[in-house]
UniProtKB/TrEMBL annotation:
It comes from Coriobacterium glomerans (strain ATCC 49209 / DSM 20642 / JCM 10262 / PW2). It comes from the Bacteria. This is Tetratricopeptide repeat protein. SUPFAM superfamilies: TPR-like. InterPro entries: TPR-like_helical_dom_sf.
Length: 635
């Protein structure tokens, strides 16, 4: 038997799953186990031998040592590619490049499986290892075949135009940025595509900056189709291949740039090499020339060896510098440094008149905040005086807030915000759209927070409860304020009240760790009031927080024994149970809609600092690659 491309396939007696357990156990162990299994097998399949040859070059000892420095996880994305998740701040540049080479090796095997039709299921047939190498080369060399298809998407509807209740302009900032992000999410690039971009609809320009592929991400050996011999590739040869692959990525990105908007006249690109101090290559394309010349080059390169052909073909497009975007100044300013007024739609959405009203960061040398720190330190030496000082400071700051509210020409509400997202969500608790929100000084919030902690340490739970309720009153979107009140209610055994506070927090939660803690606390209280099905479902929703995992396992195991249940529900089944009970599931539609509306309006209005925060939170919440790419367009 053979596939549609003439590759001879052998039907396998038993299905082969190359990546079994790769995402559930430590990656070095998964690779080690795979290499052991294939090596011990009498007649491994061709795809197994190809994967064995690819993976045996990975330095597993180095990978293990890196796992002691940073949490490293292999994740499979919705498009069936693999992504190696790690904290870039905990590894060196060289170690990061090593990890990217591991990711590339895994994806080259995965792309081969996808080519054969086994992207998400075990392989039931296999070509020879030699033919797998030819498939790998075909995948690498046919990258630019999709350039023409990208250009043809220009008149297709943009689904991101419907994500908000506002009406963004066709061809405007939101349309351009979201179209480009969507196009890039579909590129069949074997190496990790790290890029940022910027555009200015009025200037009709798209600018893209991306990481150059590294030689370590290229194959170490390939099959020579002519001589049917395996060839070990030198480092120099792999460097040429990597640079050539980078130029071909540039052609695809330029095509995506021009496809993002019919009015885009120029597309500029920077391909940077992180390992070299001045390793940046700059390319600039005018629309007519790209469509009439370089699109043909992209088509002609498809299937050609990675030998420098693209570099030579793009020589005329290379430039020494790329001009800054005119008219783009001020877009990235933090709210506190931005004196622009907000458009009407943002005023109504956020209950603010100027972008500076959305600032949540206070000056680090704030007198009142320094006073809180002094009083906090004094608690250890003169507790009574420190508590009196905190109460006096609270009284003074509250009086200032009340005076501002009384002197305001419009209804005013005083609230503290932990971060910019908390400020954007504040209007969800306000029905009167004429109301304006003034920021509560940090000192008022933290002084009251210290009173809660002091009362808890003294064992005066009733006093702690009063202060914790007041704390949440002035910080209704603060997760820390929710946790403080929940801790007091838990200590008092007031489980029904705790459930209500946790429900309110879940309705506003927009990060995984906060949601995990709220589900953990509400689970135990639901258990205590007799709602055992909902309690077990809540335990199953504690995702992504390793610190809670052991305690969750202990408590849920005890609950399951009471219920006579052997296995916990899946997160999907748990979500259905909680939804039926009326419990919020973060992110709620209300939160998602508010953040999406703000993101679109910030983008259209040129408020990139805040647009970046919205896009980053939404991409983390929803696990959306396109939103993640869009967040990079605002930095």
């Amino acid at each position: 038997m053979s596939d549609s491309n003439g590759i001879a396939l052998t039907r396998l007696e038993q299905p082969v799953e190359i990546f079994a357990n790769f995402c559930s156990v430590a990656l070095p162990d998964a690779l080690d186990a795979f290499l052991f299994r294939v090596d011990a097998r009498d007649a491994p399949s061709g795809i197994e031998r190809f994967a064995f040859a690819t993976f045996r070059d990975i330095d597993l000892r180095r990978l293990r040592s890196l796992m002691l420095k940073s949490r490293i996880r292999l994740c499979k994305q919705e498009d069936n590619r693999f992504y190696l998740a790690f904290d870039e701040f905990q590894v060196s540049k060289r170690d990061k490049q090593f990890l990217l080479s591991v990711e590339s090796a895994i994806n080259r095997v995965q792309f081969c499986l996808s080519y054969l039709g086994f992207s998400s299921e075990p392989a039931t047939s296999s070509p020879s290892a030699e033919d797998c190498s030819l498939i790998e080369q075909r995948i690498l060399t046919t990258l630019t075949s999709g350039a023409q298809d990208l250009i043809q998407t220009i008149d297709q509807p943009n689904p991101w135009m419907d994500c908000s209740s506002s009406r963004p302009a066709v061809g405007g900032e939101w349309d351009l940025r979201s179209r480009f992000a969507k196009a890039c999410s579909k590129l069949d690039v074997v190496v990790r595509l790290e890029f940022t971009y910027d555009c200015l609809a009025s200037a009709k320009v798209m600018r893209i900056r991306f990481r150059a592929p590294d030689a370590s991400e290229m194959p170490r050996r390939i099959l020579d189709a002519k001589d049917a011999q395996w060839i070990e590739l030198s480092w120099e040869k792999r460097c040429v291949m990597a640079k050539e692959y980078g130029y071909r990525i540039a052609l695809l990105l330029a095509a995506a740039g021009f496809a993002s908007g019919i009015l885009i006249e120029r597309c500029s690109l920077e391909m940077y090499d992180a390992s070299m101090p001045d390793g940046t290559i700059r390319l600039q394309f005018e629309r007519a020339e790209f469509l009439g010349r370089y699109l043909d080059l992209a088509s002609s390169l498809s299937g050609q060896p990675l030998d420098g052909t693209a570099a030579r073909g793009l020589a005329d497009a290379m430039v020494k510098r790329i001009a800054a975007l005119r008219g783009a100044r001020g877009r990235k300013l933090a709210p506190g440094r931005d004196d622009r007024a907000l458009p009407e739609a943002l005023r109504e959405l956020l209950l603010a008149d100027a972008v500076s009203d959305l600032e949540v960061m206070e000056s680090p040398d704030s007198r009142s905040r320094n006073r809180v720190n002094e009083l906090k330190a004094m608690l250890a030496t003169d507790r009574a005086a420190a508590l009196d000082g905190l109460k006096a400071l609270i009284e003074s700051l509250e009086a200032t807030c009340v005076a501002n509210e009384l002197l305001s020409d419009v209804p005013m509400r005083s609230q503290f915000c932990e971060n910019y997202i908390g400020r954007i969500l504040l209007p969800l608790d306000e029905d009167d759209r004429a109301t304006r929100i003034q920021r509560v000084p940090d000192a008022l919030y933290f002084a009251r927070y210290e009173l809660v902690n002091a009362s808890m340490r003294d064992g005066d739970l009733e006093a702690a409860l009063i202060e914790a309720r007041r704390l949440l009153d002035i910080a209704s979107t603060s997760m820390q304020a929710h946790f403080a009140l929940i801790n007091v209610l838990g200590a008092l055994g007031r489980h029904q009240d705790l459930i209500e506070v946790a429900e309110h927090g879940l309705g506003l939660a927009c990060d995984r760790d906060s949601a995990a803690y709220l589900f953990y606390r509400i689970a135990y209280s639901l258990w205590q009031v007799g709602s055992r099905d909902e309690a077990l479902a809540s335990y199953s929703m504690v995702l992504g927080d390793d610190h809670l995992r052991d305690q969750v396992n202990v408590e849920s195991a005890c609950l399951m024994r009471q219920m006579g249940v052997e296995t916990p529900p899946s997160p999907e089944d748990a979500a259905l149970t909680l939804a039926a009970a009326g419990l919020p599931l973060p992110p709620t539609d209300q939160v998602r809609r508010q953040l999406c509306d703000a993101l679109v309006l910030f983008t259209e209005g040129g408020f990139h600092f805040l647009a970046c925060r919205c896009a980053t939170y939404l991409s983390d919440l929803l696990g959306d690659k396109e939103l993640s790419a869009m967040s990079g367009s605002f930095t």
